[in-house]
Write a structure and sequence with these properties.
The protein is an alpha/beta fold and 298 residues long. Helices cover 32% and strands 20% of the residues. The protein has helices at residues 6-40, 51-55, 111-116, 134-150, 170-181, 224-230, 255-268, and strands at 63-68, 79-84, 92-98, 120-125, 158-168, 187-191, 207-212, 237-242, 288-293. α4 (134-150) packs across α5 (170-181). Keywords: Hydrolase, Signal.
Length: 298
């Protein structure tokens, strides 16, 4: 006579096969969703951002650096390149940064590894002369980007379609000049910018301006704020003002500056919408006296 336990075993086996098939379908769906997300933004680099990651002195990527001699370049005065050591993450966006009037790159060099460790190739430049004006510094920033993408030893790590500029003081004014002259740039981050030109109505590059409330060299009332207001509403823009900060705030490691600069670059150079939360509506703390943004982001 047939054992009464066989039908129960058959039922259990059918349940197991059905469950396995369901899990396979779900796994396939999740894999497809992950692939679709990756396909939507092939420039996304690094883990999901958090406040702790952005406020840390280094991001998730290990970095290295190399000096660039002024004798090996043209159009700018050499400098230092900082880049992620990873060779499995694909190419990275590139950013050129200029120091201010009478200053050298060493005055703001903390920005190099800070930004590079979030997945960028950064070239901090020396200018041809420490007395160069903003228009010249803008040209030098563009020359540095051209060198970075065509002649540098790390050129294969850089995506030449995803570039940005930044700078301090006259270097910040130079970054506005560079963004005006090369609208294909993905972002600009002027820090305590100084420029005799006050109107930037033709600028379309997403621009984050960071000013110091107590700046007496480039007072925000006659520099950063008019610059921000003159950028058309059709362009993404933001203005961050640091509470009681002097003109020289970029020359010291500064958490709000590092956090917002990285978030801005990740959002617009990497097209990483995970960073929207840090830009719109934006930061609010005792270290910030003003924040304005053109929300919504596109």
């Amino acid at each position: 006579m047939q054992s009464p336990t066989i039908p129960a075993r058959l039922r259990a086996r059918r349940l197991f096969v059905t469950a396995a098939a369901t899990l396979t379908l779900v796994a396939g769906s999740l894999t497809g969703a992950t692939a679709a997300q990756a396909a939507e933004n092939p420039y996304e680099r690094g883990p999901a951002p958090t406040s702790a990651v952005l406020d840390a002195s280094r991001g998730p990527f290990a970095t290295s650096q190399q000096s660039v001699s002024s004798l090996s370049v043209s159009g700018f005065g050499g400098g230092v390149i900082y880049y992620p050591t990873s060779t499995s993450a694909g190419t990275f966006g590139g950013i050129a940064i200029s120091p201010g009037y009478t200053a050298s790159w060493s005055s703001i060099s903390w920005l190099g590894p800070r930004i590079a460790s979030h997945g960028f190739v950064v070239i901090g430049i020396e200018t041809n002369s420490v007395f160069d004006q903003p228009s010249s510094r803008g040209n030098q920033l563009l020359a540095a980007l051209d060198y970075l993408t065509t002649r540098s030893s790390v050129r294969t790590r850089v995506d030449a379609s995803r570039l940005a500029v930044a700078g301090h003081s006259m270097g910040g004014g130079g970054s506005l000049e560079a963004a005006k002259d090369r609208p294909s740039l993905q972002a600009a981050v002027p820090l305590a910018p100084w420029n005799t030109t006050k109107t930037w109505s033709g600028l379309q590059v997403p621009t984050l301006i960071i000013g110091g409330e107590s700046d007496t060299v480039a007072p925000v009332s006659s520099h950063s704020i008019p610059f921000y207001n003159s950028i058309p509403s059709s362009a993404e823009k933001a203005y961050l003002e640091l509470n009681n900060a002097s003109h020289f705030f970029p020359q010291s490691t500064n958490t709000p500056t590092g956090r917002q600069a990285v978030a801005w670059l990740k959002r617009f150079v990497d097209n990483d919408t995970r960073y929207d939360q840090f830009i719109c509506p934006g930061p609010s703390s005792s270290s910030i006296s003003d924040y304005r943004n053109s929300c919504p982001l596109t």
